[in-house]
Amino acid sequence: MVKYNLAGFLVGNGATNWDFDVSPSFPQTAYDFNLIPMSLYNNYTNSGCKVWFNDFKPITGPPYCKDLWNQITTLTKDLNWYDLYRPVYAEGGLSAEDRIGKTVIGGVERTYRRGYTMREYTPWLNRPMPIEGEMEQVMGAPVSDYLNQVNVRAALHIGDEIQPWEECNGN
Predict the structure, then answer these.
(1) CB atoms within 10 A of CB 153
(2) How far apart are CA 19 and CA 61, in angstroms?
(3) Beta partners for 110?
(4) Does residue 65 have a pLDDT over 80?
(5) SS3 string of the chain?
(6) Domain residue spans in the chain?
(7) In the prediction, which pLDDT does 171 show?
(8) Per-residue pLDDT tens over the stretch 114-132
(9) Chain centroid to CA 101: how far?
(10) Cα–Cα distance between 68 and 44 in angstroms, integer?
């Protein structure tokens, strides 16, 4: 009997609780990946510093926590937080035409939207975003392409009656 480790096949966003995920957990992750020095990590954590995504809560800790956070983000600015093994996504974006992917499902060519923009991914955030129609950075296009490959759909037992996979629906 063949056993599979499906942990690598989970698809989704690891940020499930904004109080703990993303910014509050990043210093530990950066330290565990040897991206920041132990002295910076220890100073940050021993001071009780905590920073939240998009500053949706005030910084916790002494006033110098912001400086420590800036040091961490400066050392990691060229990294992709969603996948530390990949580079930061390119500036700019994909054109509307480049965002249309094609696959064959049940012998019929189907189209799907490749990747997602931050506007699509987090429409509920109250922050300035590019004006609709402007080029926006597109993330996750390779994941959309991968999950729509015929062999991947077959391996995951996705039937022909199921539509192509898209990162998010923009709603």
Answers:
(1) 19
(2) 15
(3) 103
(4) yes
(5) CCCCCHHHHCCCCCCCCCCCCCCCCHHHHHHHCCCCCHHHHHHHHHCCCECCHHHCCCCECCCCHHHHHHHHHHHCCCECCCCCCCECCCCCCCCCCCCEEEEEECCEEEEEECCECHHHHCCCCCCCCCCCCCCCCCECHHHHHHHCCHHHHHHCCCCCCCCCCCCCCCC
(6) 17-75, 89-171
(7) 40
(8) 988 877 877 777 666 666 6
(9) 20
(10) 6
What is d(CA 76, CA 74) in angstroms, rounded to the nearest whole number? 5
- Which amino acid makes up residue 108? V
Q: What is the pLDDT of residues 71-86, one digit of tens each?
A: 999 999 888 776 676 6
Computed over every residue of the chain, the mean pLDDT equals 80
- The answer to whether the beta carbons of residues 103 and 149 sit under 8 Å apart is yes
Distance (Å, whole) CA 152 – CA 158: 9
Q: Which residues contact 124 (CB under 8 A, 6 or more apart)?
A: none
Rounded Cα distance between 152 and 25, Å, is 32
Q: What is the pLDDT of residue 93?
A: 66
pLDDT exceeds cutoff 60 at 158: yes
Predicted TM-score (pTM) above 0.90: no
